[in-house]
Amino acid sequence: xxxxxxxxxxxxxxxxxxxxxxxxxxxxxxxxxxxxxxxxxxxxxxxxxxxxxxxxxxxxxxxxxxxxxxxxxxxxxxxxxxxxxxxxxxxxxxxxxxxxxxxxxxxxxxxxxxxxxxxxxxxxxxxxxxxxxxxxxxxxxxxxxxxxxxxxxxxxxxxxxxxxxxxxxxxxxxxxxxxxxxxxxxxxxxxxxxxxxxxxxxxxxxxxxxxxxxxxxxxxxxxxxxxxxxxxxxxxxxxxxxxxxxxxxxxxxxxxxxxxxxxxxxxxxxxxxxxxxxxxxxxxxxxxxxxxxxxxxxxxxxxxxxxxxxxxxxxxxxxxxxxxxxxxxxxxxxxxxxxxxxxxxxxxxxxxxxxxxxxxxxxxxxxxxxxxxxxxxxxxxxxxxxxxxxxxxxxxxxxxxxxxxxxx
Amino acid sequence: xxxxxxxxxxxxxxxxxxxxxxxxxxxxxxxxxxxxxxxxxxxxxxxxxxxxxxxxxxxxxxxxxxxxxxxxxxxxxxxxxxxxxxxxxxxxxxxxxxxxxxxxxxxxxxxxxxxxxxxxxxxxxxxxxxxxxxxxxxxxxxxxxxxxxxxxxxxxxxxxxxxxxxxxxxxxxxxxxxxxxxxxxxxxxxxxxxxxxxxxxxxxxxxxxxxxxxxxxxxxxxxxxxxxxxxxxxxxxxxxxxxxxxxxxxxxxxxxxxxxxxxxxxxxxxxxxxxxxxxxxxxxxxxxxxxxxxxxxxxxxxxxxxxxxxxxxxxxxxxx
Lengths: 408, 320
Known about the structure:
The structure holds two protein chains of two kinds.
Chain A: H1 3-40, E1 57-61, E2 81-84, E3 89-95, E4 101-108, E5 117-119, E6 127-128, E7 135-140, E8 147-148, H2 153-161, E9 168-172, H3 179-210, H4 216-228, H5 233-251, H6 259-283, H7 287-295, H8 300-311, H9 313-329, H10 332-337, H11 355-363, H12 370-401
Antiparallel strand pairs in A: 1-5, 1-9, 2-3, 3-4, 4-7, 5-6, 7-8, 7-9
Helix pairs in contact in A: 1-12, 3-6, 3-9, 5-6, 6-9, 7-8, 9-12, 11-12
Chain B: H1 2-13, H2 15-51, H3 53-56, H4 67-72, E1 77-78, E2 86-87, H5 90-121, H6 124-139, H7 142-163, H8 174-198, H9 202-210, H10 215-226, H11 228-244, H12 247-252, H13 271-276, H14 285-315
Helix pairs in contact in B: 2-14, 5-8, 5-11, 6-8, 7-8, 8-11, 9-10, 11-14
């Protein structure tokens, strides 16, 4: 083998090596996406955002004499499903995960009297609606034997049709929904941006427009803000726990970790991102704009609100989107600052979990709920991808417009 | 009434008022900046204030925690929680550094080689696909990696260990942690290295080619060494992420209460995973000790950063 072929071979070897190395990223992303979709897609449906996470046993009754529905179902029901025109409800025989025979609510008509039931048990809301997916355990009547689930759906419907009033209805609500966590995440995004955007944008404007460029103090300001990016999020969690939680507790009705203290902690986390991204967009605004504005007699305030802010809008938008991505994905800081208790009823003064922390809570639980974790992961990945795409769109349009066409 | 409004409008338009309002306006912006730049002191201050409590108070009659043993010992807690102050996290510091180092060992070659491929070798369409892939990987939140780790990675590691005849605890191990961290820091290293490789001056490359080097020889013997300072920045950023990562690591590392874990199939714990686990009270030494660990974590990150920056400045860039 001569020297030339040897060189050629070694070259090829090294080239292939770089190719293989870069395919690792592709492989990992593919593996994650395939795994998450494979595991979680089957739980992905609209009920996920309707249902509570915990399934509860409710005992419902109708207090007044009901106005009967006497209506046809608005959708076609199959032969396995038994419908009561009087009550506007369809029941179906089914099996639970353990293979036990159960009766589930397949459909409830919108005019059904069962849409407003009074809760007799001590837990849960005072009134609730019968929703499809609920499991009916038994229906008790006045002076008649109860309709139990072991008789099947058909018998239950027949007995229901035969009476004008029932004593109580025992149901198990459908659990495994993530409504509470979705609300929490939305609240967190809103509150965090409310805290962080004004301060972040104002800081960026001060640093870029008003602060003297070469003064040592300005340099220190920048460095201090930049240092925040290097702090690991779990340390932010500690800070939230020891600083914001007591602060919020003393100012509001919150008694411990709360949604507000979580949002304040997140605000500190996204602050450097917002400042840096906004400043980048301020830096590319041509100086002529400011000079023209001042030459027209505008004050600094007018220049900022009418010239600087509109031109920096795409930058502020990117900053917002980046921040949303960060908020949705954050877990370690929130575990400390809000806690890991999954709630269905959300209060901004109470504990609850964001989508990411919901996954953590389920994974550290026994047994871990892998399927639902994967489903929530799909949602989180989708949100993050959409944010990334929108950022690209915003910056591309921004670059296209540049600063040739004038402002408003 | 109308007269007052007109008067007020007139007052608003006088130069004096304008100047006054402008000053107030800028002052508000200055306040915002002061708030933003003060948070780093709040963070460090709070963690410091809480973190030193176990060492300077007598912890409700239990006596202060011994700082030297805290930093060097290898049994997390001797005695019962809330009834003992013998906390030792020396082994956690070592494990944190060891796991991060292993992760770097895996991610660095892969990251740098793929950066080279993306920047110099791949055709344009492939490069843009790979770049998007890396960007997406960088933006996936750590809890999703945690889910991936706690199902796929630990299973594969378990099977691998089983194949070698080693019993690992369901795959929760140093190796799983290192692989997971490697996946998480890979995009950082790739992106920063690619930037560094692309900013190598073309004249250096042309010089190499003119001397008769093949394209591949040029890439490996000239471009990579010229970009090493930038690649080092990627290492610093990646290590920072690996050292501070909490949720994902706590899911795959197992939970180790004592002893060093250099065997890659043993369970381990890092500073961050120990901080996350088993938080039960909101006061007392078991609560405050987490702040002490946070303080140690910050110290570890800062010291590693300084050390690496020192090395980076020593090696420097060839064309500088």
